[in-house]
Amino acid sequence: MTTITLTQSTPPLSQDEEGTIRLAGSRIPLDTVVYEFNQGATAEPIQDSLLTVSLRSIYGTIAFYLENQTAVDDYLRRREQEAEELRRKIESQPEIAAFRERLRHRRAQLLASRA
Q1: pTM of the model
Q2: Do the beta carbons of residue 38 and residue 26 sit within 8 Å?
Q3: Cα 65 vs. chain centroid, distance in angstroms?
Q4: pLDDT of 52-111, one tens digit each?
């Protein structure tokens, strides 16, 4: 009879120097897998869209999320707030507003030339 040792393996995740949690060995953030999972995707379709990540990593990440859902949801909310603050900071810079206006003007020119 084969003996199965029941141990908790470490999640296939790592945290970079900025504090972003990513799937180990990739640049894919935890956010991506959790978002897709919460939209109803299972591990296989998630893996299909993230070809560089193993199915085992996707299942491990989903298991980690389900076991730590409150903490992960808090982490994701903090990341979203940080992203919004950074977006506001960048958009408030005058040179960014001027650049956007140049882009809008150029886009209008391109659309007018096609009509």
Answers
A1: 0.73
A2: no
A3: 13
A4: 899 999 999 999 999 999 999 999 999 999 999 998 888 888 787 788 889 999 999 988
Alpha helix stretches (DSSP H) within the chain: 30-38, 43-49, 55-67, 69-91, 94-114
Q: What are the backbone angles phi and psi of residue 21, rounded to the nearest 5°?
A: -90, 125
Tokens matching residue 15? 């945290």
CA gap 87, 73 in Å, rounded: 21
Residues 91, 47: contact at Cβ < 8 Å? no
Size of the chain, expressed as the number of residues it contains? 115
Q: How far apart are CA 47 and CA 41, in angstroms?
A: 10
Q: Are 16 and 79 in contact (CB under 8 A)?
A: no
Judge whether 44 and 27 are in contact, CB under 8 Å. no
Q: Which residue has the tokens 């504090």?
A: 19
Task: Please choose, from the candidates 3, 5, 53, 10, the residue with its C-alpha nearest in 3D space to the C-alpha of residue 33.
Answer: 53
Half-sphere exposure of 109 (CA within 13 A, CB side): 6
